[in-house]
Sequence to fold (231 residues):
Amino acid sequence: MREPLIIGHRGAPLVALENTMPAFQAAIGAGVDGIEFDVRLSSDGVPVIIHDDTLTRTHGVRRRVASLTVAELKGLGVPSLREFFELMAGNDLLIYLEMKSREAELPRVCSQMVREFGFEERVIVECFDLDLLRNLDLVSAALFEPRVYADRFIVDRALKVGATVLALHHRLAKPPLVEKAKARGLRVAVWTVDDPVWVPRASTLGIEALITNDPPTMIEGADQIRVQLDR
Fold:
């Protein structure tokens, strides 16, 4: 197994539009260990894959995701979670599913589909809204970005909601916090890093996964580290 794991952030967004099937296929082709992506609900309650709450930035359409049906969204190039899971059924890669919207139904429908596909051992559900992780009976990751909480509270807040993974913005991934998290039994992932210097740093600190926009470059760095360790 590659150490650290290299996870494609929204697929391979330097190759194809983020969070689309071409981006996911490009990430798989590059040899990633997993894919990270964002999920919201359509107006008819179907989980779809898109980061923003509107389609303006990514698809050039001035509409809110929540105002369109899954059929309308698919027609604009937004994939459904089911389409993505059908693609992933052909491999054994890790799946980092970030819940972006706050509907109470979102955790339930995502969990239901994870079980339908038998992906319980592969999926890590992550969210900034930690309350959505409570009572989630899947592996979960507490997401943290800078300036939200003082570092000393981060580990406690993650554990309080039952998370087993700590997903840190790279500016938070300093040795004291990573070491504290690992000492308390948390696995650590870091986002979003595109500089290969992070590969040896992650290996030294025991960071499990790096989430990146540039999978090929980071994979090359990780594979070089592995070759050096095998000598």
